[in-house]
Please model this.
Amino acid sequence: MTTKTRHVFASIKGEKREINKDNLLLIEEPDYNVFAVFDGVSSAIGGGEASKNAADFIKANHKKYLGNEIKLKQLMYDTNSHLLKTGTKEPFTTFCLVYQNKTNSSFTYSWLGDSRLYIISNQFMEQITLDDNYSENVLTKYLGDPQLHISDFRQEEKLKNNLHLLLCTDGFSRVLEKDKLAFFEVFQKKSLKTISEKINSLIKGKNIDDSTFIFVK
Model:
């Protein structure tokens, strides 16, 4: 039995950015969905191009990795290899990706850098990814690094049950972490339209960096 997925998303240019280097990806298949956010490293020449190229590669190739066996680690390792072959200078981007199985209420996720995944219930909001950084401005892992090995990529699985999921780039999470209660209350709303409008109002004008999110009920 498949379940209908409800989600909202947006990508908002940072107040101090000339262009938005973030990107996002939504793929809806009969038995699964793929959600992903990408944060092109702002200091990298090819950050914005890398975030787009990564999303395009996954969109074109995801079916090869999401059959009877879920191979997110291999998918993202191959995405990194693809970025290195594009010829883009400094093709650096972080990512957070979720594969949602519609038949058994599970989700599998992978990430690199400081793009995050939160799980949200009616009682708590918890970050379940660990940031790859020394500080807010110093990343230790990101796509586009030729030194990455497949062992640098993660693949973890959880049951979704009644949990909501929030994928977001660091420009979004920095605003969220300063006012977690306000965001938590918004995430409890029943209407996706209301959630979308209120999230955007909480972000706009406060996000120094590009802010991208996907919220999945």
Remarks:
- The chain has a mean pLDDT of 94.
